């Protein structure tokens, strides 16, 4: 879809939310579309890392509030809407490869949920963050709230939620909401994504599952065992040992 762009080069997929005139506010169709896109990228063996960013000045000003009257009006619609948000953000968090957000400008509400669903947040120094659910009488979703708690801790999460105040990149860095601030987040995020894409995909997939599911309270030991055993049985495990013995860099294939 035109509102979601995707380009793949050198094993890194760059996903761009593309409604710059609306500060990349997410429509219902975009929540569903981003979930489907991340499921496809997860299944694509050529993709070793993913970046998420916004077109124009901003990352995303969150859910498209203009749509709410038509599609998030009553409780049933609100439930269906939150399912779409969770599907989109859940697919980002569940993708078994590193996902790096490059944020700039506004990153608010649902935009913050998208950024928090990524493994890392590289931010422009001009970025402005916030979760204004308490200015709309909305309870921010369970998944997004848990991600916030795991990033910044209980008291800061409450401050962000109760106050609905915006905060800048320096504050976001000091609380752990973002983990890198610079004047060129895209370039820095790309360097980082390329570096990660050299490492063993099955190691990263296993680590991501254990860490993310533990943080979200969805950890299943059988799934962890499956991923650990898949790595132990992989050709990449043999390649890693051979490369070590031959004193050369390993060439991993993710199998
Ligand atoms: N949903 C729908 N449209 C949005 C939007 C959102 N979340 N955020 C911005 N837009 C639209 C504006 O309506 C405006 O459209 P228009 O030109 O047709 O009027 C356009 O994007 C530019 O935004 P504007 O408000 O004119 O820019 P600004 O610099 O004055 O303010 C924000 C920027 C982000 C502070 C302000 O738009 C805002 O508060 N947005 C809502 C943020 C929010 O509550 N997000 C949480 C949603 S869950």
In terms of DSSP E residues, the strand content is 15-25%
Number of domains: 2
Low-confidence stretches: none
- Please trace the helix and strand order, writing H or E for each element: EEHEHHEEHEEHHEHEHHHH
The whole-angstrom Rg is 18 Å
The number of strands is 9
Main sheet: strand order = 1-2-3-4-6-9
CATH T-level fold name of the largest domain: 2-enoyl-CoA Hydratase, Chain A, domain 1
Determine the number of helices (DSSP H or I, runs of at least 4 residues). Answer: 11
Structural class: alpha/beta
Verbal overview:
With 255 residues, the protein is of the alpha/beta class. The chain folds into two domains: 4-196, 2-enoyl-CoA Hydratase, Chain A, domain 1, CATH 3.90.226.10; 199-246. It is 50% helix and 15% strand. It has eleven helices and nine strands. Strands 1-2-3-4-6-9 form a six-stranded mixed beta sheet, with helices on both faces. A three-stranded mixed beta sheet has the order 5-7-8. Helix 1 links the parallel strand 2 (12-17) and strand 3 (49-54). Helix 1 (28-43) runs parallel beside helix 3, helix 4 crosses helix 5 and helix 5 (142-152) packs across helix 6. It is globular, with a radius of gyration of 18 Å. The relative contact order is 0.12. The mean pLDDT is 97. Bound molecules: coenzyme A (COA).
Blueprint of the fold:
Layout: E1 4-9, E2 12-17, H1 28-43, E3 49-54, H2 68-71, H3 75-94, E4 99-103, E5 106-108, H4 110-117, E6 120-124, E7 128-130, H5 142-152, H6 154-163, E8 167-168, H7 169-175, E9 180-182, H8 185-196, H9 201-216, H10 221-232, H11 235-245
Parallel strand pairs: 2-3, 3-4, 4-6, 5-7, 6-9
Antiparallel strand pairs: 1-2, 7-8
Helix pairs in contact: 1-3, 3-4, 4-5, 5-6, 9-10
Bound molecules: coenzyme A (COA).
Coenzyme A binds at residues 22-23, 25, 61-66, 106, 108-110, 132.
